[in-house]
Amino acid sequence: MENIDVTKYYDLAAELIMTYGPKLLGALAVLIVGLFIIKALNKSFKNFLEKRNIDPSLKPFFSSIVSVLLKTLLVISVLSMLEIEMTSFIAILGAAGLAIGLALSGSLQNFAGGVFILVFKPFKVGDYIDAQGYEGTVKGIQIFNTILTTPDNKTVIIPNGGLSTGSMINYSTEPLRRVDWTFGVGYGDSTGKTKEVLQKLIDNNELILKDPAPFIAVSALADSSVNFVVRAWVKTPDYWTVFFEMNEKVYNAFNEEGLNIPFPQMDVHVHNTNSLIK
């Protein structure tokens, strides 16, 4: 068996250590110190956001963005200290980023939508919205999705991409909402008495605001009823309470006051055909 000359390997190892050892130790030291500095900077940035009263949903997003950017700069600096060719590295990183971007185009669209929602805030946690065919209370705004809870306690997850570009109704933005009803009475019933009954029910409801003033008028002479439109303003949280209570109270009041609530009817005429049969 041939004797292996290990001396030259020792010499090569010593040469590599002498050449790259200081650079490697320096790069390692810069990496460790840099991570500590980034941690301190990120903490200071969070305190800055707290003092500025930034929306709570924005704080984790901004903090993570700053942390990623600082760590990326630190890694590039460490690689430069090791004399790694950065031009090739950046080119490879760019090509990889392009490939990932094409593969995750939908996710990037949702990411951009999440940024749009967090920055411009068309809605916030706790708002009741109607968007993308779903209604519910916003329970969470994440960077890719928004989470709704429907009135029947279902969880709906909506991608932010379509949510940020599509039409949306936010029922919680304004402090007041208008409640609209349509009540019908039979032909022959007094319109004056009907208005009086409706006005009395509105006046006795403490949740209905006096300013703006409620509105009552005949809206249509329908096929089987005279329809009255009633419009009243309430505080937004009281909307459904007033809506359902008024329906019940109107039904009971119309019955007590002798006002007829018409319903669809069909008259069937039976003709005697015996005379036609001979």
Q: How would you characterize the overall build of this protein?
A:
The protein has seven helices and eight strands. The protein has 278 residues and is of the alpha+beta class. It has three domains: 10-103, Helix Hairpins (Orthogonal Bundle), CATH 1.10.287.1260; 122-170, Roll (SH3 type barrels); 176-256, Alpha-Beta Plaits. It has a five-stranded antiparallel sheet. A three-stranded antiparallel sheet has the order 6-8-7, covered by helices on one side. Helix 1 (7-51) runs antiparallel to helix 2 (59-81). The protein starts with 6 loop residues before the first helix and ends in a 22-residue tail after the last helix. 12% of the residues are buried. The model has no long low-confidence stretch (mean pLDDT 82).
